[in-house]
C-alpha cells in the first residue's frame, strides 16, 4: 500500500486486464480504493485482482464488453452491489485494429473502433451516472494525444479520441450540479502490449515511436496511472470538462 488518497472510494476501471488499465487499477487499490476490474479478457482481469489482493488491496474481476449496453450495465450494478456505491469510473478500454489509410479500412474495423472506444464510454457513463448522482464522483475518459493531433493510418482511432474529449466536456456541463466531475486523460505513447502489437517489440516501439516525443521516449503506465489517481481524487476538485495531457510533449511540436 502506498497511500490513502482514494480511501473509501469505489471505482470501475474498464480494460483493467492489461497495460494502462492494469496500472490504474493497481494504483487505485494502493491508494485505498475498492476496484471493479472490468475487461472482455476475464482471465487477465482476474490476474490483476490477484496481484492487487497480494499487495493488500481490494478488487473484484468482472467480465465486461463495454460495447454492449447490458454488459456495461451489469458491470455498474456489480460494482454498486459489491461495494455499496460507485464514486469513480475510468473508461479506458479500446480495441486495436490494423493501421491503414482510411479508404482501405475494413468497415468492420471502423464500426468496432467506434463501438468500443466511443460507444463503450457512452454506455459505461449512461449506466454509471444514475448510480453516482446521490454522492457525486469522478469520471475519467481515457483519450489520447491523438485527440489533438492526428496520425496517418489511425484516422478512425483519432476520431474516437477527439470525440471522447468532447463527450467529457458535454457530460461535465450536464452533471456539474450532481457533483460529478468528468475529465479526459490523454496519454502519449506508452509502453504497453498495444505498442508491441503495432511495432513487433518494445525496443522498436521506443526507437520509432518514442523518438517522436520531445522527451525521446515512451511513457510508462505508472506515469499515466498517476494522472488517473489525481483526477479520481479530491485533489482535482476544481477540475471538470478538462483533458489532462500526459504525453512527453508530443502535442507541443
Ligand atoms: N499505449 C499507448 O501508447 C496509448 C496512447 C494513448 C492512449 N492510449 C489509450 O489508453 C487506453 C489503454 O491503452 P493500453 O495501451 O493499455 O491498451 P491495451 O490494448 O494494452 O489494453 C486494452 C484493454 O482493453 C480491453 N478491452 C478491449 N476491448 C474491450 C471491450 N470491448 N470491453 C472491455 N475491455 C476491452 C483489452 O482486453 C485490454 O485488457 C486506451 O484507451 C488507449 O487508446 C494508449
Description:
By secondary structure, the chain is α/β, with parallel strands linked by helices. The protein contains eight helices and seven strands, in the order E-H-E-H-E-H-E-H-E-H-E-H-H-H-E. It has a seven-stranded parallel β-sheet with strand order 3-2-1-4-5-6-7, with helices on both faces. The protein is globular, with a radius of gyration of 17 Å. The protein starts with 9 loop residues before the first strand and ends in a 7-residue tail after the last strand. The mean pLDDT is 97. The chain binds nicotinamide-adenine-dinucleotide. Nicotinamide-adenine-dinucleotide is lined by residues 14-15, 17-21, 39-41, 44, 64-67, 92-96, 116, 120, 142, 144, 187, 189-190, 192-195.
Task: Give a quick set of tags describing it.
253 residues; alpha/beta; Rossmann fold; 7 strands; binds nicotinamide-adenine-dinucleotide
Helices, strands, pairings?
Blueprint: E1 10-14, H1 19-30, E2 34-39, H2 42-54, E3 58-63, H3 69-83, E4 88-91, H4 107-132, E5 137-142, H5 155-175, E6 180-187, H6 193-199, H7 202-208, H8 221-232, E7 243-246
Parallel strand pairs: 1-2, 1-4, 2-3, 4-5, 5-6, 6-7
Residues 14-15, 17-21, 39-41, 44, 64-67, 92-96, 116, 120, 142, 144, 187, 189-190, 192-195 line the site of nicotinamide-adenine-dinucleotide.
Amino acid at each position: 500500500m502506498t497511500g490513502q488518497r482514494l480511501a473509501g472510494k469505489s471505482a470501475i476501471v474498464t480494460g483493467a486486464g492489461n497495460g494502462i488499465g492494469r496500472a490504474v487499477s493497481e494504483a487505485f487499490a494502493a491508494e485505498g480504493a475498492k476496484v471493479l476490474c472490468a475487461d472482455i479478457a476475464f482471465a487477465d482481469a482476474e490476474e490483476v485482482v490477484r496481484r492487487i489482493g497480494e499487495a493488500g488491496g481490494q478488487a473484484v474481476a468482472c467480465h465486461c464488453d463495454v460495447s454492449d449496453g447490458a454488459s456495461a450495465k451489469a458491470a455498474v450494478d456489480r460494482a454498486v452491489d459489491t461495494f455499496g456505491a460507485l464514486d469513480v469510473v475510468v473508461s479506458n478500454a479500446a480495441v486495436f485494429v490494423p493501421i491503414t489509410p482510411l479508404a482501405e479500412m475494413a468497415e468492420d474495423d471502423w464500426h468496432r473502433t467506434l463501438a468500443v472506444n466511443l460507444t463503450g464510454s457512452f454506455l459505461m457513463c449512461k449506466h454509471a451516472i444514475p448510480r453516482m448522482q446521490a454522492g457525486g464522483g469522478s469520471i475519467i475518459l481515457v483519450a489520447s494525444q491523438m485527440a489533438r493531433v492526428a496520425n496517418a493510418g489511425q484516422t478512425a482511432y483519432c476520431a474516437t479520441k477527439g470525440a471522447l474529449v468532447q463527450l467529457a466536456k458535454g457530460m461535465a456541463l450536464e452533471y456539474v450540479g450532481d457533483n460529478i466531475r468528468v475529465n479526459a486523460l490523454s496519454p502519449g505513447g506508452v509502453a504497453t502490449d498495444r505498442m508491441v502489437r503495432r511495432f513487433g517489440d518494445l525496443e522498436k516501439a521506443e526507437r520509432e515511436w518514442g523518438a517522436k516525443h520531445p522527451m525521446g521516449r515512451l511513457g510508462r503506465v505508472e506515469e499515466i496511472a498517476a494522472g488517473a489517481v489525481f483526477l479520481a481524487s479530491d485533489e482535482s476538485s476544481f477540475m471538470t470538462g478538462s483533458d489532462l495531457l500526459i504525453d512527453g510533449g508530443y502535442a507541443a511540436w
